[in-house]
Amino acid sequence: MTVHGRVLLVLGDSLAFHGPERPEPADDPRLWPNAAAAALGARAEIVAGTGWTARHAWHALTSDPRVWAVLPAVDALVLGVGGMDTLPSPLPTAVRELIPVLRPEALRRRVRAAYLRAQPVLARTFAALPGGGPVALPPRLTVQYLERCRSAVLAIRPGLPVVAALPPPHRAECYARVHPGRAAGERATRAWAADAGVALLDLPALVGDHVLGGHGNPDGMHWGWEAHAAVGEACARVVSGGDH
């Protein structure tokens, strides 16, 4: 694959903009999309949000006019979503997403506190059961939305390089450090990528030791700058065709 040095469009989750201490401005050069773009002589356009799954990426692609504006200049597409899809979701995702709009404020605080208390307990309980319990987005839906993103962008920009990411590990206490859905998510992503001709960014290999060794953000999920640099370098290599 080749990139002509203009724009690297990254549809991502919070791993695209969250550093070792806090979320960072999207133009911070230490973030992995910007590190990848710099290595390619391009700039990164980061379209991402906290907790985003592949479904959120598809909605952004189809509903955000900022994405439409940048598409004519895009030289490579990175689907940096799918990891959050594999996280335990013992309570419906819709419940979590509705908490911020609950009124009055006192009710919102109580519901949020109850949700945060219940999540690790239920995640650990479900993880011990066959199948590991529900995840934020089932693998079959993850790959459906990834394929929608890929095919939609290629309909506008035929032949554009496309890179996806394998779901990374975590050690987050808010999920009781369990991650039973990750393996199934990886299998589905690998199968889809092979069928679709999409290159893969192997995040478990790149950040596994970093995250599981406690070298990233204290939340046990987001990365330190060392991991961002490694992912950015690997992403540039995959986009440019040096690693498949």
Automatic annotation (TrEMBL):
Domain of life from the UniProt record: Bacteria
InterPro entries according to UniProt: OctT, SGNH_hydro_sf
Name this polypeptide is given: GDSL-type esterase/lipase family protein
